[in-house]
Write a sequence for this structure.
């Protein structure tokens, strides 16, 4: 189980009931022979959504289309009801934090964010103050006047995020926002993102580090080979993967007795024993948990731990993209 | 093949530091670090600017410092070249020479470490096989994907048969499958031939997964050095944790919390689903099952409460 | 250790060999030979692709032939514009030092295509971490790059002239001619070697000035062409030919002319610096370039590793 303070998305204050924030219909993008995405349809109404997929699957293409940097070869992308590549108004309401690190090394952090703020439509008079506030929120108050060139990777990341937030956008698109960031700064940034979502913003965050996504949200979309492979709540998706029965691990003092109590159940697929634990694979987790509770009480078994090692995003991703069905606890 | 175990008490420690100090002008990168580090896979953690890279430079003899540093029993001040013969470094950034194929790069690396040409060629192929690049090893490194570049970096660090590997963010930029494969590769190394690994990363779950020891640096000094269990247990309320459990049930947390409270437990909610329950004296987890059964609730998760690695890290660093 | 077993019924044993990672138990070559590995690397990567080396080597070959032909055809003709100790020189002798008017061009291009960006490219690609986390000293790196680049440049400044001098020996008609002709061969070699090293070192020194190869190559070109022309112009204006030795190609030329004791009578147009000035300039450039290189490389070695 990923060991992180589990604080998934706080419910956003207002969910757009009428208009989707992002609406993608039958979108395809080809670069010559190279496939970007193929027939992708997706609706984002609010909250935090994790965008996942192997390298080269089409995530960046999708994000760039949402941000307006690319136009789909076919199909339609709409952000706040408008096409982002043609509508500066829509783009003004988007904050994009890209993966690459090309900042203008010669500028100081404050200068750079101020500049980006103005480019995003913040009036000149306010730009500098807003930039300063955004940087302070990211914990960079000591480095406002330092040139970006001397920044460490984590500081660059936070500067990029400040730039992304400075013009108070309604939609945030974050591509690997936490690479190179040390654990302290990571916790702060995760807090900022959750605050943003709580105040009504929509956040689409993409990352390869699955436990980071887990810390932010339970809602994901998986892009694989240019198409949408799965979308929705992580745990709901898990229940849909019946090729891999649910695995439950019970650490207790008498694993074999517990196993005996479970062996007769028809939903139990396999039982495996460790020195001080029993691992049961079941096709119907609901009935299994019930049964476990009963057996524990009947036989007075002392349980030290009850976990589901593959009920996490890592396992879900693994099963979806065809990895070997091994336990990915942790 | 029986693995060569480094943990023999008579073998020299991987790292022996005594009062190592390094300042760049006003910036004190290392402030008198003293430690003896042994183990198989050691995680090196710390915020940016904590002194990790300075420590590495001192270890490889690339920068003068006050105090004494020994790597594998060799002095970093006077025997740094012999150290570099036996240490492999996998850098964080891209580090390759233009126009070379993977095989050429690894062979070049081996020759630079003193291996004769034919040996170097042979070991280059072996290292690339090990790193999983057998099909692509004749292609230029420039054209590689991120995952492949990371593997080449690992191969070139291994090719001269080091006893100690220093890996800097080895899973950087890798998608989840490739990350898992890289971690497995790394984990395999000490077992195969007993070479020890120091893993410098910001990703705590990686550390959790493969490291047996953790060293946390902050503001130029080592703040924690021990096993992961020690790190988790080291919290101030460690003993008092014996009766505290994290619980998740299928639905109806409010009712469950109320029932538990009536049974004498202290319940704290961690949204959206988790309950942290302190059991009264003399009871054990069975109480939870009983109460759950009483209201037809279904326990889906139960674990002794302990700091997540992240919380433990914050605690250590915050105390500085 | 291979897995092996013996079937209880007495069948022959089988074995499965462990193909995994093996220890290296051989010896390691001494530290002093590491630079040679770098030399090999420099030369082999230069030979890749057409435009880094191959084209220019072909150009040098063509030039060599183009000079050899008149050497043969007009070998007895007097080359009016050059004199040796008051006596005029024949074409077959004159073309040897004169060839150093042409070959330096190729040397310049070879250096521009390779050495002038070498250290910058390494800096940018993170190659320094690669090198210096291994038992490689800054001096090994410098020596390897210098010798390797000099070898590349020498295909222009050394190979062609050397072949021409051998050709000259071949053109001798009797023993009286052969001996003085033979004496010319080591002189060509000397000019070629000193010239190659100077070109390589200066280009490499420029390449260590920045992390951007295009900028350093531009610096090399500016130095060679612009700065050189300015020096030559000054020498002309101030009527001090020795000043032209500041320009690298003129220094090489002056050294060649000086060694061959050939001088240009007034009115030929271009000024050629004297031998002392030329020799001195080449040595000075080499020395200063090496110092700069060593300093920059040492500094990069320290700054190289790690990011946070």
């Amino acid at each position: 189980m990923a060991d992180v303070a589990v604080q998934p998305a706080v419910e956003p204050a207002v969910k757009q009931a009428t208009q989707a924030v992002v609406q993608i219909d039958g979108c395809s993008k080809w670069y010559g022979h190279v496939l970007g995405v193929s027939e992708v349809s997706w609706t984002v109404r609010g909250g935090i959504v994790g965008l996942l997929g192997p390298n080269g699957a089409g995530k960046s293409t999708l994000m760039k289309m949402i941000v307006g940097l690319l136009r789909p070869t076919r199909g339609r992308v709409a952000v706040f009801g408008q096409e982002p590549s043609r509508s500066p108004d829509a783009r003004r309401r988007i904050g994009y934090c890209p993966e690459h690190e090309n900042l203008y090394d010669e500028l100081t952090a404050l200068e750079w964010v101020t500049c980006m703020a103005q480019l995003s439509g913040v009036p000149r008079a306010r730009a500098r103050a807003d930039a300063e506030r955004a940087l302070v929120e990211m914990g960079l108050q000591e480095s406002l006047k330092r040139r970006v060139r001397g920044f460490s990777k984590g500081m660059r990341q936070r500067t990029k995020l400040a730039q992304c937030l400075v013009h108070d956008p309604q939609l945030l698109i974050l591509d690997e926002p936490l690479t190179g960031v040390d654990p302290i700064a990571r916790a702060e940034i995760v807090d900022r993102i959750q605050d943003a979502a709580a105040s009504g913003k929509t956040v689409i965050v993409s990352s390869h580090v699955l436990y980071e996504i887990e810390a932010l949200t339970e809602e994901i979309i998986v892009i694989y080979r240019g198409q949408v492979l799965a979308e929705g709540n992580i745990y709901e998706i898990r229940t849909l993967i019946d090729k891999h029965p649910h695995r439950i691990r019970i650490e207790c003092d008498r694993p074999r007795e517990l196993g005996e109590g479970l062996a007769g159940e028809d939903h139990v697929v396999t039982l495996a024993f460790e020195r001080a634990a029993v691992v049961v694979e079941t096709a119907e987790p609901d009935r299994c948990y019930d049964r476990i509770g009963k057996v524990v009480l009947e036989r007075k078994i002392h349980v030290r731990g009850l976990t589901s090692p593959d009920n996490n995003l890592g396992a879900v991703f693994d099963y979806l993209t065809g990895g070997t069905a091994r336990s990915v606890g942790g | 093949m029986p693995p060569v175990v480094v943990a023999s008490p008579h073998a020299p420690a991987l790292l022996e530091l005594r009062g190592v100090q390094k300042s760049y002008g006003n910036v004190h990168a290392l402030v008198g670090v003293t430690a003896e580090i042994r183990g198989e896979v050691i995680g090196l953690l710390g915020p940016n600017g904590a002194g990790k890279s300075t420590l590495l430079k001192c270890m490889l003899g690339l920068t003068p410092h006050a105090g004494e540093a020994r790597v594998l029993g060799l002095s970093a001040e006077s025997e740094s070249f012999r150290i570099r013969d036996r240490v492999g470094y996998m850098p964080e950034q891209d580090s390759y020479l233009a126009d070379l194929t993977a095989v050429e790069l690894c062979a070049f690396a081996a020759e630079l470490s003193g291996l004769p040409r034919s040996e170097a060629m042979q070991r280059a192929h072996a290292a690339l096989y090990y790193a999983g690049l057998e099909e692509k090893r004749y292609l230029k490194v420039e054209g590689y994907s991120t995952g492949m570049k990371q593997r080449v970096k690992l191969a070139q660090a291994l090719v001269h048969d080091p006893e100690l590997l220093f890996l800097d963010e080895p899973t950087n930029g890798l998608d989840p499958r490739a990350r898992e494969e890289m971690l497995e590769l790394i984990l395999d190394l000490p077992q195969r031939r007993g070479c020890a690994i120091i893993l410098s990363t910001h990703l705590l779950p990686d550390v959790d997964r493969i490291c047996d020891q953790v060293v946390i640096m902050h503001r130029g000094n080592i703040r924690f050095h021990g096993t992961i269990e020690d790190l988790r247990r080291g919290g101030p309320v460690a003993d008092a944790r014996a009766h505290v459990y994290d619980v998740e049930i299928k639905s109806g947390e409010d009712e469950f919390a109320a029932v538990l409270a009536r049974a004498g437990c202290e319940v704290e909610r961690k949204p959206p689903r988790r309950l942290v329950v302190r059991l009264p004296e003399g009871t054990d987890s069975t109480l939870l099952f009983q109460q759950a059964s009483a209201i037809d609730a279904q326990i889906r998760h139960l674990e002794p409460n302990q700091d997540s690695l992240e919380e433990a890290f914050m605690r250590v660093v915050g105390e500085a | 250790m291979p897995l092996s077993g013996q079937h209880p019924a007495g069948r022959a044993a089988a074995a499965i060999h462990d193909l995994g990672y093996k220890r290296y138990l051989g010896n390691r070559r001494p530290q002093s030979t590491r630079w040679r590995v770098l030399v090999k690397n420099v030369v082999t990567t230069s030979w890749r692709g057409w435009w880094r080396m191959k084209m220019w080597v072909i150009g040098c070959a063509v030039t060599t032939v183009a000079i050899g032909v008149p050497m043969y055809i007009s070998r007895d003709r007097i080359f009016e514009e050059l004199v040796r100790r008051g006596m005029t020189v024949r074409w077959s002798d004159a073309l040897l030092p004169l060839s150093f008017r042409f070959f330096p061009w190729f040397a310049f291009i070879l250096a521009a295509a390779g050495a002038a960006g070498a250290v910058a490219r390494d800096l940018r690609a993170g190659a320094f971490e690669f090198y210096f986390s291994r038992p490689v000293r800054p001096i090994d790196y410098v020596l390897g790059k210098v010798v390797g680049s000099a070898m590349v440049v020498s295909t222009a400044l050394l190979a062609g002239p050397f072949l021409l001098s051998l050709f000259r020996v071949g053109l001798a008609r009797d023993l009286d001619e052969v001996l003085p002709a033979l004496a010319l061969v080591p002189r060509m070699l000397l000019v070629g070697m000193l010239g190659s090293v100077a070109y390589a070192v200066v280009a490499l020194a420029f390449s260590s000035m920045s992390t951007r190869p295009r900028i350093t190559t531009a610096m090399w070109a500016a130095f060679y062409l612009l700065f050189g022309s300015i020096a030559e112009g000054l020498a002309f204006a101030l009527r001090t030919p020795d000043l032209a030795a500041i320009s690298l190609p003129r220094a090489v030329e002056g050294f060649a002319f000086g060694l061959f004791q050939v001088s240009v009578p007034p009115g030929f147009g271009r000024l050629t610096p004297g031998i002392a000035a030329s020799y001195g300039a080449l040595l000075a450039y080499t020395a200063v370039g090496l110092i700069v290189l060593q300093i920059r490389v040492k500094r990069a070695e320290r700054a190289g590793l790690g990011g946070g």
